[in-house]
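Example is below:
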Amino acid sequence: MYFHGATEGTKYGLLAKDERVSFEMDCEHKLFTDESRGYCTMEYESVIGRGHLEIVPDEQKYDALCTLVKQYHDTFEFNTAAIPRTTVMKLTVENMTGKARTLSM
């Protein structure tokens, strides 16, 4: 997985000390309520994992950013002038688990 951000900040100091990271992503949130029982919960899907995060070298940043942008736009041409002001990180996932809660009505 690729991520991008500014060229400075707390995360880079932490990353220099230890490249091990955790991540969590979730989607499909839906509040479920049962007013007669005074009960509520959420439907969701989630993934939690661990891996190693590395800074992508300058010579590979363009290709990594193209991969990242393609997830959102099929033919978007981003301004390459932003590349020197952008840090690109690559997450290599080592393990992950998924979980879903759906309620039948």
